[in-house]
Write a structure and sequence with these properties.
alpha+beta, minor pseudopilin epsh fold, 4-stranded antiparallel beta sheet
């Protein structure tokens, strides 16, 4: 009986140590995978905008969990028909992010119509991150700054340093972007207030 009790105690100790480590590894792997896909999609959008000279955009679903990488259809189709797309052409957008999310004027350039984030992973944008980020033909990232619902080169504002955060359990990765594209990624531990903007970077 004593040997059985000792064996159970050892199993209990090993389990209490091992399961959290396994869970942390699993959660960190999931957020890392989503962050890497996001970074790859942003770089694809930037390079595609420069090579086709057509406006591209990232649009985050207002309810979270989804996003699209798209090209402005008129310029994109003209470019592929052999014409030169005008970088100063006005791109009409709607102020309502939900309406704009389903706009027929934009074509997806990633697999499928949209990217669905892993169901266990939450995606957060910082307060300075707009719902719609535009990729200019000159390679810069910007957003509509004057509220006119028409995005022109003349009224663009450069994207400030901002970030999108992917969270699963206690693991999170923050992807930092600015007007020049992706700057870096940071992994950190989420604290108890569930606000990733004030959490400490661990590596």
């Amino acid at each position: 009986m004593m040997e059985v009790m000792a064996g159970l105690a050892i199993i209990s100790i090993v389990t209490s140590i091992g399961l959290p480590a396994i869970d942390n590894f699993y959660s960190s792997s999931r957020v890392k995978a989503e962050a890497e896909i996001f970074v790859s999609n942003l770089r694809t959008a930037r390079y595609s905008a420069m090579s086709t000279q057509a406006m591209h955009r990232l649009i985050l679903h207002p309810e979270g969990g989804y996003y699209k990488i798209q090209a402005f259809a008129p310029d994109f189709e003209e470019d592929y028909a052999g014409a030169t797309a005008s970088s100063t052409a006005g791109v009409t957008i709607d102020g309502d992010a939900m309406t704009e999310y389903d706009s027929p004027d934009w074509l997806s350039i990633i697999d499928g119509e949209e990217h669905e984030v892993d169901a266990g992973v939450s995606i957060y944008r910082s307060a300075s991150m707009p719902n719609i980020v535009f990729f200019q033909p000159n390679g810069y990232l910007g957003y509509d700054s004057d509220g006119s619902n028409t995005f022109n080169v003349s009224d663009q504002a450069p994207l400030p340093e901002t970030h999108v955060t992917f969270v699963y359990g206690n693991s999170a990765i923050r992807v930092i972007i600015n007007a020049f594209g992706v700057m870096s990624s940071e992994a950190f531990q989420v604290d108890d207030d569930f606000n990733p903007d004030n959490d400490g970077v661990i590596w």
